[in-house]
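Researcher: Sequence of DoxX family protein follows. Predict its structure.
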Amino acid sequence: MDFALWIVAGLLALAFGAGGAGKIVVPKEKITAIKTGRWAEDWSPRALKAIGALELLAAAGLILPAALGVMPVLVPLAAVGLVLVMVGAIVVHARRGENGQILVNLAYLALAAFVAWGRFGPEAFIG
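Model: Prediction complete. Tokens:
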């Protein structure tokens, strides 16, 4: 199970690292021009950058604390943070009627919840 948790955490870190970086460097106009990025119309450019920063921090928090052996309790906390971000994303997409995006968010939420459960519970980092 430890291996599965590392794989899932790594995949989440890649996805949210790329997504977060994109929200920080890509202008709002380019994000909203993409069909799956229309949700960003409801947010200011500064808010998009803040969301991107949260996603980047979560991506780093899923891997670096455990890999470096420094405060590995941050791994499940980062996963809980991603669960909260995905709850927010689901609310935004539901309000906009973007049901296809809700399914994607639910998948990410489930993966992040799996990492949080696993790292708080049966495969917690000890020491």
